[in-house]
Write a structure and sequence with these properties.
204 residues; alpha+beta; 2 domains
């Protein structure tokens, strides 16, 4: 769930293609499955449950805006964690972000139903998306956007090899992240944060 006890500041992370591989075994009986027609209903339920949208109908509108124009891509890029009894309880997409005439790989809409959090499902979805990008866009860095309200997810992203960029001037966010994040994760965040020289060379 989002932690709105801290101010909102946006954060951009990147994972480079030469980052060490990572793995995340699922609990017994759980699986990761690709999107199938009709799964958008579960996507809306999940995203609304984690407060990404205030209502399911607004989530559906965003699904249509973000994904419906590329139906042939959904089965290759949108993934769900499914329980042993067949319930979809988490999702994440290996999508992209358009930037002028270019686009960059984007880990998009990671969410797990609150009652299923803490089981490693989010990490399994992140690993699945990384593997999808290795097939679909090999040798490309993978970006993701998040915010201080999702500091728990920031810990997960760091474990999966993502590094904080300076694209959104995160210095204002750092004191609040230090306050909330366990010290080993905050230290990892600082130790791996990219410098401005990289930003100037590599940002489109």
């Amino acid at each position: 769930m989002l932690d709105k006890s801290v101010p909102f500041y946006p954060l951009i992370f990147v994972r480079f293609p030469d980052s060490p591989p990572t793995d995340a075994p699922l609990p017994p009986g759980y699986s990761v499955q690709a999107w199938q027609p009709g799964a958008e209903v579960d996507w809306c339920t999940i995203e609304t449950a984690v407060d990404e949208f205030p209502a399911v109908d607004e989530a559906m509108q965003r699904f249509i805006e973000d994904f419906a124009s590329e139906p042939e891509e959904l089965s290759k890029r949108l993934f769900f964690v499914v329980t042993p009894d067949g319930k979809r309880v988490g999702n994440c997409a290996a999508w992209w972000q358009k930037r002028g005439d270019d686009r960059r790989c984007l880990l998009h809409y990671l969410a797990v139903l609150p009652e299923y959090q803490g089981l490693g499902l989010g990490r399994a979805l992140v690993v699945q998306v990384i593997k999808a990008f290795q097939t679909l866009e090999p040798n490309e860095p993978v970006f993701l956007g998040t915010q201080t309200w999702s500091w728990r997810a920031v810990c997960l992203y760091l474990r999966c090899g993502f590094q904080l960029t300076r694209e959104k001037d995160p210095e204002k966010a750092l004191p609040y992240l230090e306050q909330k994040m366990p010290a080993p994760y905050y230290n990892l965040l600082i130790d791996t944060m990219l410098d401005r020289q990289w930003e100037g060379i590599n940002q489109p």
